[in-house]
Structures are given as structure tokens and as C-alpha cells.
Amino acid sequence: MGRTLAEKIWDAHVVRSAEGEPDLLYIDLHLVHEVTSPQAFDGLRMAGRGVRRPDLTLATEDHNTPTDNLITIADPVSRTQVETLRRNAEEFGVRLHSLGDAQQGIVHVIGPQLGATQPGMTIVCGDSHTSTHGAFGSIAFGIGTSEVEHVLATQTLPQATPKTMAVNVTGELRPGVTAKDLILALIAQVGTGGGQGHIVEYRGEAIRNLSMEARMTICNMSIEWGAKAGLVAPDETTFAYLKGREYAPAGADWDAALEYWRGLVTDDDATFDTEVTIDAGTIEPFVTWGTNPGQGAPLSASVPDPASFEDASERSAAERALAYMDLTAGTPLRDIAVDVVFLGSCTNGRLEDLRAAASVLNGRKVADGVRMLVVPGSAKVREAAEAEGLHEVFTAAGAEWRFAGCSMCLGMNPDVLTPGQRSASTSNRNFEGRQGRGGRTHLVSPQVAAATAVAGHLAAPADL
Amino acid sequence: MEKFTAHTGTGVPLRRSDVDTDQIIPAVYLKRVTRTGFADGLFSAWRDDPDFVLNKPEYAGGTVLVAGPNFGTGSSREHAVWALQDHGFAAVIAPRFGDIFRGNALKGGLLPVQLPQDAVDTLWQAVEADPGTEITVDLAARQVRAAGHAWDFTIDDFTRWRLMEGLDDIGLTLRHEADITAYEAGRASFRPRIATPA
Asked: Do domains A5-274 and A331-463 have the same CATH topology?
């Protein structure tokens, strides 16, 4: 019987398999950042262990780093955490892209950018948005600090075999509708727990027609509906993206890799444990109204009435969400005014995202009273955007053009919402307090973010 | 890691679904480089509310958290597990867990127990009616017992054995180091290798 893509990759990485035990899986690439690694390196030191494969390990600074300068981390606790990573990287011989380095950036932006993320790999990081790398046809998932230590010490992880799921995306995305709208609509359809225990393969013409960056946006949010990992089969779009990048294979290795990569497809006679279908052609610009990524609706809709939810726990979650978000059922989503617009993150902080937002902002102004932060996903994204003059569009519109990092996606660095502030954010989580205590987050696409900044309330470019 | 065979303690009813790891411990508390001292960050945004369950004196000594579905979704921060343990929790019961949280909890010896919603409802009612209700989470028997009820739960044999023996995962894996070395010898040359610092 045929195998799914996920099963092929899994099977190719089993170091050891025994009845009644989880498979021992080899890890091709371990990405590391400052937040989830210090206790892991400490564990190695206490046990007298080293890093088994520094050449399969890559570190960056992103969560705590400021985006207003490349030198000073004002918060001493943040600074200590970053300095701890620097010491650990040096002690254990791990490549680190520090603040100010030309390759520094969000861990999930720099892996693909360097060509270190390739088809058919196993990739882990102490970060749930590791699922991003699945866009290249890899099994990529987030792990906790104990597992970070395990991978540093052994380059393997014991893993129970997940189930497989197909998300069949039929039809075509309409003009003005993006990968972000698609994934938000999917999560609203299946719920935040819908993918639990599954590696998900996103399939169908609408997926095939997406760029690599758009595929990364989709795979990035796999974790937001509970999936273990999300992936897209590699194709010519993938290979064209990779060719010539720093860590992409070259010469005879490229040919060998390409031959292997072309086999990384789900066989026609393979079966998935679960299948979900979503029609891309019916999707509109999509935004969230609540406090989990499944609480979303088309921008043309209104804030739902909690009483309309049949499930008791969904109903009480909606009641709590409306109270936290200070929203009233029945309010048109377009009437919701925002204080802050955040364009960035591992979900939507890449060059295409900046281009899309700039095309909306070009010749327009950010509304009075609205603060817009534009934070490139990496130093290289910033450099490329500046080469195209995008920064001039942003600053002319009155937005802040900042340095790379996780920024306002999570409240760990100076970029935070103040209590009660409301944001339209291109990031991935609208959890209570995620962007700063008491902050209220609406997840949106880059286009909607830009239009919202201009309008001062949730809006699509067509509304301007 | 300490051995875990069974735990008996009082329960804390957390009547919420989708309690994500940002709510368990906000990012601002993740800046520490140690493995302990995270209890002050536990559910910090809710601790100002006197009605929040952890602020009620009758639940102060609870060691078994009983929560709604999708507990521990979101970020991979193991700090969420450490914060719950620092507070004194030994087990969390919920109808469904975020996968990464569940994995992290099992690494650290905080037992995540998946029970159906009706069992969770029964536990909530029992614990709210009498906060002194004892809940036994019996890993050896794969069973939760409380207020005259008993519910079986599933956990794979290997993980159960590892927890009951209190074994270090890395040590277990390193017993198979020869297999790892053999696997590495067969890896394709086109796989990326990071340029390590000189």
C-alpha cells in the first residue's frame, strides 16, 4: 500500500523502532533561540554532555531582542537571557546569529532564508511555530526545553507515530484573499483542537499555486489548530526557492537532492487517517474577534452572539472572549476601531508580506491616533525591503520601520500593547495578554493590516 | 525525575476551555534562565481576580488541576509545566490537551490525564460541592478515582513505565548510541550542515 508524504519522511528518519516503544527519530536540523534553551544547556553541563551535532544546530536571538536598535537590550533580565545564549553557543560550538548580525532574525524566517530548511527533513525547535518549515515538505514541529536538551545531546527524539490528515483545499483563492485568510478560515472551521495528534498535509490546486512564503504562512499556523505539524509536498516552486541559497546543496549534491525531493509526494493509493475539505473560492478576508485563533469570521460579518454556539464550552469561551475583548455581539467587524497595527512575525514578516502591505499604504496615511509598527522577520528581509524602497512607503505613510525580531507577536520585548489597547496584528495568536497584559488582538492578513491602519478600524483594501 | 506511581490530593476546578500556555504563564515570565521559580507567573493575569479559583482559600492546597478542553494549547514553553509544578500540582485532568504541553508534562513528571468531558463535569461538581474531595490519579492502574467514581485513562506502556521508574529520557536514548551512529553513517551527503564557528 502507498504511503503519505509524512509517512515517507518519518520512515526515512527512524533510527530505531521497537514494539511497545516510541520510534527514535533522527533530527536533521535543530533551531535554537534564547528563551527555551538556557535550561537545556544547563542540563548538558550538569550531566557532562556535549552537543552531539553542532553542524546540525543553528541559533538566533529573536524573542527578547529590541526592534528599535541593534545594540542595547534595556531590560536586564532579557539581556541576561540573550547573553546566556551567547555564552552557551560559544561553549558548545554552535553557530549563533546575534543581534546586529546580517543573518539575525526570527528563527523561522532565517532557516528557510539560509536554505537550511529543505524538503524531506526533520526539523525541531523549542518553539511551537516550527511548523512553518513544513512548507518545504519537511516534518517540522515545536518541542519543549527537555526535548531541546535531548536533541542537543543525541540528535534524536523518541516520538510516538502521529496520525495523518489531509486538508484538501479545493477551488481558487479570489483576488485580494490571502494565505492568512485561508488558514484563519480553516481554523474557524475545524476548531483549535481539530488537528490534535496529526501531521497535516495541505493539498490541492490552491496550495500548489501559492508561493513559498504563502505556504509558510499556512504551515506556520498548523499549531493553532492543534496539529503536530503541517506540510506541503515540495514542487518546482520549492526547488526554485532553494536553488543557490547558502545551505542548499550544489553541484552533484543538488542533482541527488532533486531526485530524492521529487519522490516526496503522497502516493495515489495512500490513505490518510482523517480528511478535511475547505473551498478556497468561498473565502473572504478573515479576521478574529475572540481570544483564540478559532474565534474568527469573515470581515464582512458581525461579532457573533455567544448564544449561537451549540457547544457549551464554546459558548462560555465566546462569552469570556467578548468580555475580554470588550465587544458587543452584533457589532459589524468593520466598525471595530484599533489603536495599534502590527505587521510582522514568523507568520507574516517576510518580503511578500511587506510588499503586500506597502502596496496598500502607498500614497496613503496611517489614520490619526493609530500606531503602526512594521517589523521585518529578519535582517535580510529588512535589507531586501529597503533595496525596493518599501521602507520609504511605510515611513511616508507614518508607520514605524523597525529592526527584525519577534516584536509585538508576544510580550517579551519592549514592543507591547498597554492594557486595553486594541491591535490588528499579522501574527498568529490572539490569546489574552499575548501582546501585552490587557491587550486585545485581532489577527489579520498583511493587506487587512495595512487597510486597517489607514481606515482606523478593521478594513480590507477594497474598503479604502 | 521522581518516580510517579499514584498521587492523591484535592482538586482545583478550572472551568475554562482553551487555557493556552500564554495564560498558564505569560511570556514576560519566561526570561529566567533557571528551571524553578515560575510559580509567581502561574495564571498571573487572573490572580488579581479574587474570584479566580486559585485565589480561593478552600483550593489553596489543591494538587490536581481539573480543566476544560484544549488545556495547554499554544506555545511550546515548558515553563508552563514548571510553573504548575512549582505551585504544587502533580496532575492535570482535562478532556483534551495541546500536544506539546502534554509531551512537556510527561517529560517533567506532571501527569496529564485525558478524561471525557462528562467525567470532568462530575469532578468539577464534586470538588465544588466539597473542596476536600480527594482525587486519586493512579498511573499504575491507569485510573482516576474520586467521590465514589472511577474512570480509566489511557497512556502508552513505555511512557507509563518511564514515569513509574523515574527514568531520564536522554539516558534511555544513549543506550542506543550505536544505532544513532549507524544511522548517521547512512545519511545523504546533500543534507545541510551548518557552518560551525571556528
From this structure: yes
